[in-house]
Amino acid sequence: MAGLAAAAAAVAQAPSSQPSAFDACGYLVAGPGCILFEGGGGTYVLPQAEGFQFGDFVRVVGTLDPECVTICPQADGCIRGARVYSARQFPCGTHLPNFPEDIVINVCSSLSGLFVAGPLIAVFIARRYRNLPGKITGKQRSQ
After folding, report:
1. How many C-beta atoms lie closer than 10 Å to residue 93's C-beta?
2. Taking a C-beta distance cutoff of 8 angstroms, is the pair 63, 45 a contact?
């Protein structure tokens, strides 16, 4: 009974290994039948390298799963949903562009000026058109 209670206490005190956000720079290395990323304080399995080669210096962003099941014995975990970027183009610690969102925000910002300026331009043109010389007004028609 005492052994069972001690084991339950040890399990209750064990640190939680929940998946967490991951963003680090390092190198791609070949494992035995897998792609490994060395960086961020460990060696992690990547599902794909997205066109990069072994030895490339890259930035990996995804979700760290330290409890994943893998065929790579030297791995400290897996990076789920990994996106691999050139670390020279997007260095660690810099903002990563969110292309669809950035495009929508930029287009909306550009068009917002048109929505404000458009009616003002229409009023300006209408007023100028009313005052053109040679234009027949309502008073001239009735004569």
Report:
1. 8
2. no
DSSP secondary structure letter of residue 67: T
Place of tokens 């331009």: 121
| Integer angstrom CA distances of residue 66 from 11, 16, 45 | 17, 10, 10
Phi, psi dihedral angles at 76 (to 5 degrees): -95, 0
Contact 40, 22 (CB under 8 A): yes
Identify the band that residue 2 occupies on the pLDDT scale cut at 50, 70 and 90: very low
Quick one: tokens of 118?
């458009």
* pLDDT tens digits for range 82-119: 999 999 998 988 887 766 655 666 666 666 666 666 67
Which pair of structure tokens corresponds to residue 119? 């009616």
- Measure the CA–CA gap between 64 and 19, rounded to whole angstroms: 5
- Distance between CA 93 and CA 107 in Å, rounded? 27
| pTM for the model | 0.58
Pick the CATH number of 18-86 from 2.40.50, 3.30.70, 2.60.120, 1.20.120: 2.40.50
